[in-house]
Amino acid sequence: MTSISTTRDEFSAGGVVYRHGADGVEIVLVGRRRQRLWALPKGKPDGDEAPEQTALREVREETGLEARIEQPLGEITYWYTGHDGLRVHKKVSYFLMQAVGGETAAHDHEFDDVVWVHLSEAERLLTHRNQLPILRRVAELTERVA
């Protein structure tokens, strides 16, 4: 007897691009106006990309910035219902990054806005509150290098 699965696993990777501004650490958020969404850039791997490659590509596409990875930030996991009606268990790996080139005006069509915001403002704006532990980790790590 064959059982039909009602769940599936999914993986994405993304990055938190930061810089030291006049008032402290700033990071890049991506936004969609119609959905009133503010998030960290992330996406699914293309083929057999490693998580680091996926994160760098997604940051480049979604923010217009070329970045380099400094270190892993950790993972978040959550559940949602996919378009196929299946429950999806999603795992997202994030990396701390610094911009080395590009400009936010060069981002792709997936998001309406790409902005640099102070870390405390990012914590307030984030739509998906499960990303807050990632921002807290960014705060810990960037305070050490400030």
Explain this structure to me?
Strands 1, 2, 3, 4, 5, 6 and 7 form a 7-stranded mixed sheet that branches. It is built from 3 helices and 7 strands; from the N terminus they run ββββαβββαα. Helix content is 23%, strand content 47%. The chain has a single domain (11-145), classed as Nucleoside Triphosphate Pyrophosphohydrolase (Alpha-Beta Complex), CATH 3.90.79. 30% of the residues are buried. With 146 residues, the protein is an alpha+beta fold. The longest helix is centred in the C-terminal third of the chain and has 14 residues, at 132-145. A hairpin with a 4-residue loop joins strand 2 (24-32) and strand 3 (37-39).
